[in-house]
Amino acid sequence: MRRSELVRALGRVPAPPHPRPELEQVVTPPERAADLLETAVADGDLSGRSVVDLGAGTGRLAIGAALLGASPVVGVEADPELVGIAQAAASGAGVRVDFRTGRVSGFSGAADVVVMNPPFGAQRRGADRPFWEAAFAAARHRIYAFSLSESRTFIARRAVARSAHIVASRPVPWELPRTFAHHSRKRVALAVDLWSIHTGPPP
User: Fold this and answer.
1) Mean confidence (pLDDT) of the chain
2) Does residue 177 have a cis peptide bond before it, meaning omega lies within 30 degrees of 0?
3) Which residues contact 187 (CB under 8 A, 6 or more apart)?
4) 9-12: which pairs have CB atoms within 8 A and are 24 or more residues apart?
């Protein structure tokens, strides 16, 4: 699939219709979702791999993974409204994704690859921590994820504690559009990193 086709397909996955600030329900920009998924493809980590999307929202990363050949794909999301939207979006895209309602802290499954855009902790400090803990527990091979750049030290320390290897961490352009009532600007640029972390046996 060409990048332009992937970005268009990801853009057709709707944003949360009633975003909840306490859950930091912001949509992953299609271009950034494509960055993450194409990184995984370049590493040989999607086609034929099992994938779980932690904090799936409306399903943009999970659906993109399925479009690029991942199977089976599971999405875990706490908000049942978003789970319903994600299921409809997957059906519309012609892919199979098992979207489950639940908090990531209660997820006990595993997959070859974890993809995620967890909360950045803007509303509640440390809101991203349960997602990273769940990701390290669930990923048998690799984690691909976004985080605020200020979280680099935390993530690096958790990787060391889990005997994981940071393959890459690079800044990506990220603009957050006005989403919640307290947002005063039309959009704001954020310092965001894209991570690739190897969690399996040494390559």
Assistant:
1) 91
2) no
3) 175, 176, 177, 178
4) 9/63, 9/64, 9/67, 9/93, 10/34, 10/60, 10/63, 10/64, 12/89, 12/92, 12/93
Spell out the domain ranges in the chain: 3-198
- Give the mean model confidence (pLDDT) for residues 141-167: 95
194 by DSSP, 3-state: which?
strand
In CATH terms, the fold of domain 3-198 is Rossmann fold (3.40.50)
Please give the structure tokens belonging to residue 144.
């691909």
Beta bridge partners of 187: 177
| Rounded Cα distance, 38 and 18, in Å | 29
Give the DSSP letter string of 125-187. TTTTHHHHHHHHHHEEEEEEEEEEGGGHHHHHHHHHHTT-EEEEEEEE--EEE--STT--SSE
Q: Is the pTM of this model over 0.90?
A: yes
Per-residue pLDDT of 119-136, as tens digits, reads 987 667 788 999 999 999
